[in-house]
Write a structure and sequence with these properties.
There is one protein chain. This protein is mostly helical. The chain has one domain. It is built from 13 helices and no strands. It starts with 8 loop residues before the first helix and ends with a helix. 40% of the residues are buried.
């Protein structure tokens, strides 16, 4: 539901000029994901499914929850995805800051946090909340009944995205997102035991492979976007770096980059990963 509300009518207008970059981004990331998953499963003791979801450029909690449906070791996926996110935030911003020229920067956008600024809730807000929750619930249940992989998550995202694209009125209370993260954290955390940390050495080589994948994924994809789509290098590298939408958006805004394009690219990356990966996993599994 939270992810689905990111798709607005304004995105449709922007998407008209971003169709090719988005397609290239998704195809490149999924291809690299597949290649490194085979490499990780071949060189380590992790199963292919665990490696597949651990290498995926998606959200930490989202991928861990989806991975559990396909027999992957959820706690390993969660720990490696957390390592990926931390590595991206620590390594890439200062690295990119040194790489980009001042001429590639644009005035910082004030829109990145606009969606977080809300008026005091009124009856209309509460009605929007109710409609959004009901829509998400209906979409999730429908996809589960249809047997779609990770149907509860994908169905709610799809339903809310359609609602927001049609009405631009999908919403949720400000406290809803942290509550969702808390419950997801409780579920994932319950799978992490003392035995998991005792097996920490098992994840050292996978973590190293994942770090190499981050650089290949970011720089190779950015190079293709830069050459084929003629995006400026700073926008291309930030769009291709598989970090969180909010984190990458805020950091790019701080650096004075084209934040709306970057956020749009990351939004479709997340949706593509959550929508396509379960289908690939079911086919391979």
């Amino acid at each position: 539901m939270v992810i689905g509300t990111r798709f607005t009518q304004a995105d449709i207008k922007t998407l008209k000029t971003m169709v090719l970059p988005v397609l290239i981004l998704v195809v490149m990331l999924l291809t690299i994901n597949m290649g490194f998953a085979y490499l990780m499963s071949s060189l380590t003791t992790l199963s292919f499914m665990t490696s597949f979801f651990a290498c995926a450029p998606g959200g930490v909690s989202d991928l861990a929850l989806v991975a559990a449906d396909f027999g992957a070791t959820m706690e390993h996926v969660a720990l490696l995805q957390l390592f990926r996110l931390i590595s991206v935030i620590i390594i890439f911003p200062p690295l990119i800051r040194k790489m980009i020229a001042p001429s590639e920067r644009v005035p910082a956008s004030k829109n990145i946090q606009a969606s977080e600024v809300q008026d005091k809730p009124n009856k209309q807000h509460y009605l929007s909340y109710l409609i959004s929750v009901a829509t998400a619930f209906g979409g999730g249940v429908s996809f589960v009944m249809l047997g779609v992989p990770a149907g509860a998550l994908l169905g709610s995202i799809f339903a809310i995205a359609l609602l927001n694209l049609a009405t631009d009125n999908a919403a949720y209370p400000a406290s809803f997102k942290p509550m969702v993260q808390i419950f997801a954290g409780c579920y994932i955390g319950s799978k992490v035991t003392f035995h998991t940390f005792m097996e920490g050495s098992v994840l050292l080589l996978p973590a190293l492979i994942l770090l190499v994948e981050l650089f290949v994924m970011a720089f190779l994809t950015a190079f293709v976007l830069y050459k084929v789509c003629h995006l400026n290098w700073a926008t291309a590298i930030f769009s291709a770096t598989p970090g969180g939408i909010t984190e990458m958006g805020l950091i790019s805004d701080e650096l004075g980059l084209e934040t709306p394009k970057i956020v749009l690219m990351h939004t479709f990356r997340i949706l593509a990963v959550l929508g396509v990966l379960p289908l690939i996993a079911r086919y391979l599994g």
